[in-house]
Amino acid sequence: MTVTDTRDLTTTNAKAELVEPNNNETQGLIARLGRWLERDRWPVPAETQTLFSARMTDVAANRLAKQWSLRYMAADGKERRALLAALVQASAGLEPRGDQGLRLFRRLYAQADSLHLLVELRADMLRWRNQVAGLTVLERELEGLLSSWFDVGMLELRPITWDSPASLLEKLIQYEAVHEIHSWEELRHRVADHRRCYAFFHPRMNDVPLIFVEVAFATHMADNVQVLLDPKVPASDLNKARWAIFYSISNTQPGLRGISFGNFLLKRVVDELLKELPKLKSFATLSPMPGFADWLGKQDGEAMQNLLNDKTDKQQALGDPAAGLKWVERLQAAANGKASESVQRTGMRLAGLYLKSMKNGQPVDPVARFHLGNGARIERVNWGADLSTKGMAQSCAIMVNYLYDLEQLDDNLAQLAAGKPKTGLNLRWL
To answer: For labelling, which of 21, 23, 332, 419 has a CA lying 20 to 30 Å from the CA of 256?
Structure first.
C-alpha cells in the first residue's frame, strides 16, 4: 500500500470512530476494506523478479516470498492462475536463467516451511500449463526439484489399520481413486485384520499418504472385485492364503504426477508381506482397464475387421464407422444380463488385444503401463468382474489380473521394451 493509501485509510478509520465509536459493523467493514486493498496490491514484475534473483538470505525478498505463499494458499483458482502468470512474466527476463527458477521454489519452501505449497503449486501448473504461456518452463524446474525431494529413499512405508488416527482414515476415503469408499463400514472392511493397507509417507508431509495400496488374501487368483469389496463376505483365513491380491492403488497428489515411486511401493509391500506371511506363493492384481471402452468405441469398421475373430461379426462391422461403439454397447448390455459364451469370448479377446496395444513404445492403457512397467505380466481377463457404474462405463465390467512373478520381472521388462508385453498361459490364444 502506498503512503497516500495508508494515510487515506487511516483518515477513514478516524472518521468512522468519531461518528460511531462503538459501531462494530462499521469497524468490520473498514477492516475488510483494508484486507481487500492489501490483497489487490502486488509488486510489479521487477519487484517480483527478486524472488528469483535475490540471495537466499535477502530479508526483503524472503518477506515477499512469505506474503506470496500465504496469498497463494488462500486464493481461489482464478487468482492462483493470475499469480502464476505473474511469476512467468517476472521470470521471462532472467538472463542468464541458470538455477534462478530453483532458487524461487527453494525460497518459497523455506518461507512456507511446507512441501504442501510446492506440491499444490505443481498441480496447478500442470492444470494450466496449456493456458499460461511459458508456465511449462517453471513446471519442469519444479518437477526436477520435487523428484529429488521425494526420492524413494526418503519415504517411509507404514501400514494403515483401523487403529490408525481418524484423520488418516478419512484421507483414505478422500483419496481412494479406484473403488470409491461409501461408508465407514466399507473402510473398516478394507483395513480389517484379514486385509492389509500400506502407504508411503514423506517426513515433511507426515499427515498425508502419498500413495497407498490395498491388499486382500485368497487361496486363488481373484476374479471379481465386488466379492473383494463386500463387507458381508466372510473374512479369509490368513493361514490358508497363498495369494496376495493388490486390488486398489491410489496416488493422492496430482502435483507429484510423473514422479514415480509406485513401483517401489509394491516391491516394499511384497517384502513386508513375505516377512509376515511366509506361506504366500503368488502376487497379483485385480485391476481396472480405464481406457478400454473409450478405445473400443473409436474403432471403425476396418479396424474391427482386424480385431474380431468371428466371420459373422466381421461381416456386420464391414464399412460401419460406428462398429466399435456398437460393440461397447453390446458388451455393456451383455454384462448386465445373461451373456452368450460367444459374446463373452469376443469381449475378453477385445480386452486382451487392447491391453497389448502399444503407442510410442508404451502400453496404451495407463494401468497396464504402470504394472507392465514394473515387470508384471498380463495373466488373465475376467468377464463381469466390476459391475459398478464406473466399471461398466470404463471397461464394460471387464477386469484384468497382472501377475508379479518375482523371478520373471526383468525378463518381462525386456520383452516389454521390445514392444511385446508378456502374457500368461491364459492369454496365449491372443
So the answer is: 419
